[in-house]
Amino acid sequence: MKVVFLDIDGVIALPRQYNTKRNKLWVKDPDAGNLKIPYLWDERCVIALNRFILIHDVEIVLSSDWRRHWEDYEIKKIFQLNGVAKHPISYTGTEIPAHSSGIACDRVYQIENWLKNNSVLSWVAVDDLNLVALGDRFVRTDDRMGLGDKTVIEKMVRIIC
């Protein structure tokens, strides 16, 4: 199995989405209101993600903090609502290491723990945080472009294949 550890904010949701007026979104899309989604994701980034996961047969493991705010069935609906071709097959844990020095350190620890407990053929982590401790399997996004930056997808493809 090939997996992508996926962050949301700064990867498939960009600052222009963060500024969406929630009330307008919720009136326009009642499903988003029912789930209390703060904003929809960037369409270009979702298209790029879909191409990547479908062409290369990659599964999603959600490493984003979004996993802390919604139940599994709600996450599936949110992915569907945003047009993502697959929903996450799993989530990283929420444990924090004793030596934590911040959210990036925590996320690296959570990804490493997930990998210890699951068998994968290949993996890549994509995030706007600096997860350089993951080594050459990590691709950092510019939070203003996310997966809309084609060089990010090219790096992900080189790593996963």
What can you see in these coordinates?
This protein has a five-stranded parallel sheet, with helices on one face. The protein has 161 residues and is α/β, with parallel strands linked by helices. The longest helix is centred in the last third of the chain and has 15 residues, at 103-117. The protein has a single domain (2-14, 42-160), classed as 3-Layer(aba) Sandwich (Rossmann fold), CATH 3.40.50. Helix content is 41%, strand content 13%. It is globular and about 45 Å long. The model has no long low-confidence stretch (mean pLDDT 93). The N and C termini lie close together (12 Å).
What class, by secondary structure content? alpha/beta
**Proportion of β residues?**
5-15%
Helical region count? Answer: 7
DSSP strand count: 5
Biggest sheet features: 5 strands, parallel
What fold name stands as the CATH topology?
Answer: Rossmann fold
Tell me the span between the first and last alpha carbons: 12 Å
Order of helices and strands: EHHHHEHEHEEH
- The backbone outline, from C-alpha atoms, is globular
If strands are numbered along the chain, what order do they take across the biggest sheet?
Answer: 3-2-1-4-5
Question: Class, according to the CATH hierarchy?
Answer: Alpha Beta
Helical content (DSSP H or I, runs of 4+): 40-55%
How confident is the prediction overall: mean pLDDT? 93
| Whole-number total of structural domains | 1
Second CATH tier, the architecture: 3-Layer(aba) Sandwich
